[in-house]
Design brief:
There is one protein chain. By secondary structure, the chain is of the alpha/beta class. The chain has one domain: Alpha-Beta Complex (Spore Coat Polysaccharide Biosynthesis Protein SpsA, Chain A). Helix 5 runs parallel beside helix 8. The longest helix is centred in the C-terminal third of the chain and has 21 residues.
């Protein structure tokens, strides 16, 4: 299957969302401007998510999966997806569907002129504590990275795959994807997208993950920025 765009969907204990995921992603494939496939990355789920994933993939040839032996975290799941895909463009969406796949089309309109296009959640439907902790964490991260992004935690992104594959991921680095594209001298843009409340399943991040974890990750990013190797090949045989 000659695919131009692959959507990565990390899965961790999302059995209550799987059938809705199948429906909404299937509906999106019908309106996608490019030939698109879906890659589920099961991050060691302990519920029945894997059985749902296998059933969906058996019904839908456009859907594939990879499954971890144990839970490794969101950054590892995204990195595994980047490593696996071969399409020129790669996208990412959370399994909770608090963003909608149809908004990928807003990002795809811009990707020709940029190397990463990320959503910005307009009128967020999260609780006050989650909104405030995310806002504070984004402010701290912007101070460290100077990437100019308002909402790097938005789970809706499109990246040119050759840039995505060069990102040296570590735990927590999913929050720094725009900054990592800038380290490659790439270009980035943010686009407002819709946001919805979580309908099923449970949030995987608490106050520590959203606020204190990202602060520690900023120091890891600064270390990586100092050590980052960036080169461009001019000629080859």
């Amino acid at each position: 299957m000659n695919v131009a765009f692959t959507i990565i969907v990390p899965i961790y204990n999302e059995e209550d969302n799987m059938l809705r995921l199948e429906q909404e992603l299937s509906d999106y494939l019908k309106i996608a401007p490019l030939k698109t496939s879906v890659l589920f990355v099961n991050d060691g789920s302990k519920d029945n998510s894997q059985q749902y994933i296998e059933d969906i993939c058996s019904r839908k040839p456009e859907f594939q999966f990879i499954a971890f032996k144990k839970n490794c975290g969101l950054s590892a799941a995204i990195k595994a997806g980047f490593d696996y895909v071969s399409s020129p463009l790669v996208g990412y969406i959370d399994a909770d569907l608090q963003t909608t796949p149809e908004d990928f089309n807003l990002l795809l309109k811009e990707i020709e002129h940029f190397d990463l296009v990320t959503g910005v959640r307009a009128n967020r439907k999260d609780r006050f504590v989650k909104n405030m902790s995310s806002r504070i964490a984004n402010g701290i991260r912007r101070t460290f990275t100077k990437d100019g992004m308002d909402d790097t935690g938005c789970p809706l992104k499109v990246i040119k795959t050759d840039y995505a594959k060069r990102i040296p991921m570590f735990k927590g680095l999913h929050r720094f994807l725009p900054a990592m594209i800038l380290l490659q001298n790439g270009t980035i843009k943010q686009v407002p997208v819709k946001h919805f409340p979580r309908i099923a399943g449970e949030a995987k991040f608490g106050l520590w993950n959203r606020l204190f974890g990202p602060l520690m990750d900023c120091f890891a990013y600064l270390w990586m920025k100092k050590k980052y190797i960036n080169y461009t090949i001019d000629k080859k045989t």
